[in-house]
Amino acid sequence: MASVYVGTYQKYNNGSIGGAWVDLTNFSNEDEFLEHCKELHKDEKDPEFMLQDFEEFPKAYYSESGLDSDLWEWLALDDDDKAILEAYIHCYGEGTIEDARDAYQGQYNSDIDFTMELLESCGDIPTDLPSYIHIDWEGTARDIMMDYSEHNGFYFRA
Length: 158
What we know:
This protein is of the alpha+beta class. The protein has 2 domains: about 5-75, no CATH class; about 75-158, no CATH class. The chain has 7 helices and 7 strands; from the N terminus they run E-H-E-H-E-E-E-H-H-H-E-H-H-E. Strands 2-1-3 form a 3-stranded antiparallel beta sheet. A two-stranded antiparallel sheet has the order 4-5. A two-stranded parallel sheet has the order 6-7. A hairpin with a 2-residue loop joins strand 4 (about 60-65) and strand 5. Helix 4 crosses helix 5. The chain is elongated and about 75 Å long.
């Protein structure tokens, strides 16, 4: 479950990490989450929230002083789309689920499997190579895969 540990800077500065783990899936937006945090720390007049830890969501959406507003969209995605978007953000630093879906090329067991399918679909695998010619498919596949994904999209390795 996607969650954060919510304390306050005042408590922390006074030597306490008092707070609680908050399950983000209980809220449909950031405003609901912040209202819950205010209730959680109602012992302070104007609490300044400190997110001291997080789990089960991409680091790109987390900082100690707040959550990226795009996190709520990520939470609404199904597990497959979450994985696709997380991989896309890992590769490109940022992006939307639409960007990730457009770039996604599928899931393969290895770089070689991906590259072989790519080359077969392009018709670039020679079928009549003499038996004495050896191709280092692992190194070649990695080079082709990196060049292709740099310009066209990405895939998952299973």
